[in-house]
Design goal:
The complex is a heterodimer of chains A (565) and B (707). Chain A has 565 residues and is mainly α. Chain A is built from 18 helices and four strands. Chain A has helices spanning 3-34, 40-49, 59-82, 98-109, 119-122, 125-155, 177-202, 230-239, 260-284, 288-315, 319-324, 336-349, 364-375, 386-405, 419-445, 457-472, 487-516, 533-564, and strands at 212-216, 222-226, 411-412, 415-416. With 707 residues, chain B is of the alpha+beta class. In chain B, the strands form four sheets. Chain B has a seven-stranded mixed β-sheet, sandwiched between helices. A six-stranded antiparallel β-sheet of chain B has the order 2-1-3-9-4-7, with no helix packed on it. In chain B, α22 (547-552) links the parallel β20 (537-541) and β21 (555-559). Chains A and B meet through α14, α15 and α18 of A and α9, α10, α13, α24 and α26 of B. Chain A: This is Potassium-transporting ATPase potassium-binding subunit. Chain A: Belongs to the KdpA family. Chain A: Pfam families: KdpA. Chain A: It is a multi-pass membrane protein.
Chain lengths: 565, 707
């Protein structure tokens, strides 16, 4: 079997598995977020954190919950790293420097998982397991909670989505953040991650608390290998679209991702919730077709990107490429070009950022595809939760333009898109481009940041552009090559991650609140149908054109200049 | 037989109905709305205004064009620092042209309104009012009138202000406002008491109570509206402006952050080039035309003699999902017409027709005339003139007897309301055939009005047959309602008829629903019910008792013939008083939104080609690979940038006619509309600039010393 065919077959297998899993999981998640009942363990948690899971929150209250919880998360993680030297189970590693500790804390709380440290050389068991792994769960659950709040904004008040002790939901109420957060962890992420961890262990990923082993090398000399709770962290790393590896080599490390099967399984985990949540959305707004339309939009972009990536990686010219049958540099031989392409596209189109190959070593255009994937705003299918709310914001923009073209004040899912809604959506789409472009320009304009580049020319520029794109869009993957552990990069990328995560959430929740206050407009033949292929096509077009126009000059100077040379 | 009496009553008042049968929506072959004329000469005439609008305090109202304006200032300043750089001067010149073209579009749109305002001002000459104070009359300037003042107007006087007639009847020439030269009757009391300042009394004498302050009269408001002085941005326009502003910010960021990137790549970008890139990317096409589109939308209404009191109402018209239409005058012709002669047993149709015709010759009501017409058309009975039949005695129709007839050669023939005729027959000892009652009942059930025809001759008094009077649905209404349905608009017929009659007419006309025996309260309740379901409701009305419903409706169109209370309550006034126009108003509202959406799409889609022109021009020198993006094969970097800027400016002028006329609108479903507009303005917007820029580049490269 040729490598191209192998890649295509893996892609088809992956799509089949996702198609099977999305519907039941999506429907289950809808049930989780609309259920009236609390599990016993959940009641204990509510009692422990002193939250009343039955109070309905308006958007400012919901937002306060999100921000307060995340602020505590950042602070806790920061302190944990700063105090590492004094903690037990730290494998003898010292405290992390302030700028790197800030960067790492923000990185894991924002679901980015950008790592300016080498996992096996800096973080002990306690930080990895009690700090980073915990955030892998809760940061993902926060994203899902915000997405669900937005969905409620669209769905309310015409369908009652959560009864709170029998009292009817008033307009403008978006649910309860603490209930959404806890349920996301307890009923969705933990059970799925547990199953996934067992599968990974069964396939050879490691799971222990052993120390550092010194191992002899084939060619003489020794190297150090860490043990650790790798499989469990790997499971939530992919499932929660986190991406922060236990080891620096991330998913190309055989302890994290031992076989071609685990590789495909990890891609499956990455895509599982982001695709499934479209079904949750459809169920909650009372029209599964609307969910399918969003799913189709995400899937179109994802498949298109995978096809492009495979094409550039397999067909690149040059003696080395032709001899190897594709662009093999930086890719694991056990996965091959095809599977690495699928992984690279999936990890950059979701806000995961785990890597099983080195994006820097992809062909010039291939590197550009990973960059563009993140620049789309992590929406196809995007991070858990964040992918859905991101694409819904773009759907609002697309509906506004298209709605005008059918001669009505635009409306989406029965809610009118007026100036308030457009203002919030417009602010949302401004944030990440502003962060990426301004920070990149600053880094290029200042004398020192460029010293971190490993390469010169267009490729060197791509390293910096990639770093900020990855940070502001909460992806977390690196182009490799850039020495990001400097005060400048730790601080600016930390800021990009922080602002790139929470400022958009403010607008999302404000939009949800504004929508939830609206009386729904009934659907007539004069209503723009947002559950038809035509609209899906329009949405894909809007996403590609708006993103493309924003980043075209920057891309031209980086990957395009390199790829077309 | 109570319902019969009621119907007969309505028939008799029909005789005095002032409404002419309003023209039915005659169908132009393509696009009923959007036939506004565009005269290129307007561009030249509006040029001075376009320059006046370069004032930054004016420019700042349009964020997109303000950025272009600032860019023009910047490039001009930079060109002064390097006066030998012809490229900088050329770009600056075209950027200024871009701004001027945008201003020109707005000025042309406003110019059309100004012409109308001037005509109106002529009507608003300073009038002298004859104010009644106590028992005397004093002459005061019209501007000193206050609400509640009573003024006298006699033949030849111009009415000094808006008000209601409280005494007398007069014929009034309202052509100053409506353009309609035929005089109208205004009388105290009832629904035709409102008079408008600036109109002229032609005969008789009326006393008017002033209801508006000077400066706020109908004509003043009209002038403000058509001139655009009262124009405020509409909600949707504001939303679109926000979106355009945010896109502008995104592109501003993309351009502002480019210099350090370019410096790293080894090339220096001049301010002129950066501004050129920015102007090409921001949505200038829609930004330039947005305000013209809005003004032109209001103007299209004015051209149809509809005054919208706010732009908000025009937008709401596009969103309407329920139309309340009055039966009489909108769906049916104003009057019932004879449709059939139905004999009782023992009589022939021809006999009934003959008797009906004879008895109707003295009936001058439209219903009576229709009997004569039917007899002629269906039974070939020539209309006999009253003089032809010697010795005949004619009995004219009156509201009291509710009968008309003739006594000819020993035959006494009568025709009229069932109750009256039955009474007449029984008085004369005759009997009413049992099947006459049966036929009457059938006609009533079918929604018609039965008129009995009876005769008294040698054989005694008896009923001969029944005339079936029907409401006649206007030609083409069914198709119109079909179109409305495809647009997702529900039509509800409002009528005072009983449910049976209403149902029959509703079915014949093809409306979706009807409200029978409607009282103003019923109407109000219906509107509120629809609105509670999230629907927007449009209606027309003219009476004072319509006022609350007009105010409650999202689009309330008051008839100009109506009372001032109705005009005050509605948010539009139809000067032609044609209720069918509601449908056109909805279409104009939709067309306004579609034009905005189409040009926004076009504007954004244009950017793709401009990147393919400019990016290789900027960077191919340092990254030769990027020359592959020069798919248009533009001759030189300078020419590429200039071509993009020139195309960007010219496309504004090219689209001025479209933005004034509006995108062609056809009443089809949203899906079809989207598919069509997306193809034309989306795909067209992607492709057109590739061609346009290439052509401009070819022309530029012909200029010696450049290509």
């Amino acid at each position: 079997m040729g490598p191209v065919l192998a890649g295509v077959l893996q892609l088809l297998a992956l799509m089949a598995a996702l198609a099977l899993a999305c519907k039941p999981l999506g429907a289950y998640m809808a049930k989780v977020y609309t259920s009236d009942k609390h599990l016993r363990v959940e009641k204990w948690i509510y009692k422990g954190i002193g939250a009343d899971p039955d109070t309905e929150m308006r958007w400012p209250a919901y937002l306060r919950g999100v921000l307060a919880f995340s602020a505590v998360g950042v602070l806790f993680l920061y302190l944990l790293q700063r105090l590492q030297g004094h903690l037990p189970g730290s494998l003898g590693f010292a405290a992390i420097d302030p700028d790197q500790a800030f960067n790492t804390a923000v990185s894991f709380v924002t679901n980015t998982n950008w790592q300016s440290y080498y996992g096996e050389q800096a973080m002990g068991h306690v930080v990895q397991t009690a700090g980073l792994a915990v955030q892998n769960f809760v940061s993902a659950a926060v994203g899902m909670a915000v997405a669900v709040a937005l969905v409620r904004g669209f769905a309310l008040p015409h369908s009652r989505l959560r009864s709170s002790g029998g009292t009817p939901i008033r307009t403008g109420e978006l649910g309860n953040f603490w209930a959404d957060l806890v349920r996301g962890v307890v009923r969705i992420l933990v059970p799925l991650a547990a199953v996934a961890a067992v599968v990974l262990v069964a396939c050879g990923a490691i799971q222990n608390f052993s120390g550092i082993h010194e191992v002899g090398q084939f060619m003489g000399g020794t190297q150090e290998w860490n043990g650790g709770a790798v499989a469990s962290q790997e499971a939530i790393k992919e499932l929660g679209t986190n991406g922060g590896g236990y080891f620096n080599a991330n998913s190309s490390h055989p302890f994290e991702n031992p076989t071609p099967f685990t590789n495909l399984f990890e891609i499956f985990l990455i895509l599982l919730i982001p695709f499934s949540i479209t079904r949750t959305f459809g169920s909650m707004v009372g029209s599964v077709r609307q969910g399918y339309a969003i799913l189709a939009t995400m899937a179109t972009i994802w498949v298109g990107f995978v096809a492009l990536m495979m094409w550039t990686e397999f067909s690149h010219h040059g003696p080395a490429f032709e001899a190897a049958g594709g662009a093999y540099e930086g890719k694991e031989v056990r996965f091959g070009v095809g599977a690495s392409s699928i992984f690279a596209v999936s990890t950059t189109l979701t806000s995961t950022g785990a890597v099983d190959s080195f994006h820097s070593s992809f062909t010039g255009l291939g590197g550009g595809i990973t960059l563009l994937g993140m620049m789309l705003g992590e929406i196809a299918p995007g991070g858990v939760g964040s992918g859905l709310y991101g694409i819904l914001i773009l759907a609002v923009i697309a509906v506004f333009i298209a709605g005008l073209m059918v001669g009505r004040t635009p409306e989406y899912l029965g809610k009118k898109i007026g100036s308030r809604e457009i203002k919030l959506a417009a602010c949302y789409i401004l944030i990440t481009p502003a962060l990426v472009l301004v920070f990149t320009a600053c880094a290029m304009a200042l004398p020192t940041p460029a010293n971190s580049m490993t390469n010169s020319g267009a490729h060197g520029f791509s390293e910096i552009l990639y770093a900020y794109t990855s940070g502001a869009n909460n992806n977390g993957s690196a182009f490799a090559g850039l020495n990001a552990d400097t005060q400048w990069f730790n601080t600016t990328i930390g800021l990009a991650m922080l602002l790139g995560r929470f400022v958009p959430m403010v607008f999302v929740l404000a939009l949800a609140g504004s929508l939830a206050e609206q009386k729904p407009v009934p659907v007539t033949a004069g209503t723009l149908r947002t559950d038809k292929p035509l609209y899906t096509g329009l949405l894909v077009g809007t996403i590609i054109i708006i993103t493309g126009l924003t980043y075209f000059p920057a891309l031209a100077l980086g990957p395009l200049a390199e790829g077309l040379a | 037989m109570t319902t019969d009496v009621k119907k007969q009553d309505s028939m008799s008042t029909g005789a005095f109905a002032p409404h002419q049968d309003p023209p039915t929506g005659h169908k132009a072959p393509e696009g009923r709305v959007g036939a506004g004329l565009f005269d290129p000469g307007q561009l030249v005439r509006s040029l001075p205004d376009a320059f006046r609008k370069l004032d930054p305090r004016v420019m700042v109202k349009s964020p997109v064009m303000f950025v272009v304006w600032s860019g023009s200032v910047l490039t001009t300043v930079f060109s002064f620092t390097d006066p030998g750089d012809w490229f900088g001067w050329t770009i600056s010149a075209w950027l200024w042209l871009t701004v001027i073209f945008a201003n020109l579009a707005e000025a042309v749109a406003e110019g059309r309104g100004k012409a109308q305002a001037d005509t109106l001002r002529k009507a608003k000459t300073d009038t002298v009012a004859r104010r009644i104070s106590g028992s005397t009359e004093e002459r005061v300037p019209g501007t000193e009138l206050r609400i509640g003042d009573l003024v006298v107007c006699e033949a030849g006087d111009v009415i000094p202000g808006d008000g209601d007639v409280v005494e007398g009847v007069a014929s009034v020439d309202e052509s100053a406002i409506t353009g309609e030269s035929a005089p109208v009757i205004r009388e105290s009391g009832g629904d035709r008491s409102a008079v408008t300042g600036g109109t002229k009394v032609l005969s008789d004498r009326i006393v008017v109570r002033i209801t508006t302050k000077p400066g706020e009269t109908f004509i003043d408001r009209m002038i403000n509206l058509v001139e655009g002085a009262a124009r405020q941005k509409t909600p949707n326009e504001i939303a679109l402006n926000i979106l355009l502003a945010s896109l502008t910010v995104v592109f501003l960021l993309a351009c502002a952050t480019l210099p350090p990137l370019a410096d790293y790549a080894g090339t220096h970008l001049t301010m002129v080039v950066l501004v050129a890139l920015l102007v090409c990317l921001i949505p200038t096409t829609i930004g330039a035309l947005l305000s013209a589109i809005g003004i032109a939308g209001m103007d299209r209404l004015v051209q149809r003699n509809v005054l919208a009191m706010s732009g908000r109402a025009v937008e709401a018209a596009g969103d309407v999902s329920t139309l309340l239409l009055d039966k009489t005058g909108t769906i049916t012709l104003g009057n019932r017409q004879a449709a059939e002669f139905m004999p009782v047993r023992g009589t022939t149709e021809a006999q009934v027709a003959d008797a009906a015709q004879l008895s109707s010759l003295a009936d001058e009501t439209p219903e009576g005339r229709s009997v004569v017409v039917l007899a002629k058309e269906e039974y070939g009975l020539r209309e006999r003139h009253q003089g032809e039949l010697a010795g005949a005695e004619w009995i004219a129709f009156t509201a009291q007897t509710r009968m008309s007839g003739a006594d000819v050669g020993g035959r006494r023939i009568r025709k009229g309301a069932a109750g009256s005729v039955v009474a007449w027959v029984e008085e004369r000892g005759g009997t009413v055939a049992p099947d006459a009652e049966e036929i009457t009942r059938r006609i009533s059930e079918a929604g018609g009005t039965p008129l009995l025809v009876a005769v008294e001759d040698a054989r005694g008094a008896r009923v001969l047959g029944v005339i079936h009077l029907k409401d006649v649905v206007k030609h083409g209404m069914r198709e119109r309602f079909e179109e409305l349905r495809s647009m997702g608009i529900k039509t509800v017929m409002i009528t005072g008829d009983n449910p049976l009659t209403a149902k029959a007419i509703a079915e014949e006309a093809g409306v979706d629903d009807f409200l029978a025996e409607a009282t103003p309260e019923d109407k109000m309740a219906l509107i509120k019910r629809e609105q509670a379901g999230g629907k927007l409701v449009a209606m027309t009305g003219d009476g004072t008792n319509d006022a609350p419903a007009l105010a409650q409706a999202d689009v309330g169109v008051a008839m100009n013939t109506g009372t001032s209370a109705a005009k005050e309550a509605g948010n539009m006034v139809d000067l032609d008083s044609n209720p069918t126009k509601l449908i056109e108003i909805v279409e104009i509202g939709k067309q306004l939104l579609i034009t905005r959406g189409a040009l926004t799409t076009f504007s954004i889609a244009n950017d793709v080609a401009k990147y393919f022109a400019i990016i290789p021009a900027l960077f191919a020198a340092v990254h030769p690979g990027l020359d592959k993006l020069n798919i248009m094969g533009l001759s030189s970097p300078d020419s590429a940038i200039m071509s993009a800027v020139i195309f960007n400016a010219l496309v504004i002028i090219a689209l001025v006619p479209l933005s004034l006329k509006g995108v062609r609108y056809r009443p089809v479903s949203a899906d079809k509309l989207l598919r069509r507009n997306l193809t034309i303005y989306g795909l067209g917007g992607l492709v057109a600039p590739f061609i346009g820029i290439k052509i401009i580049d070819l022309l530029i490269s012909l200029i010696p010393g450049i290509g």
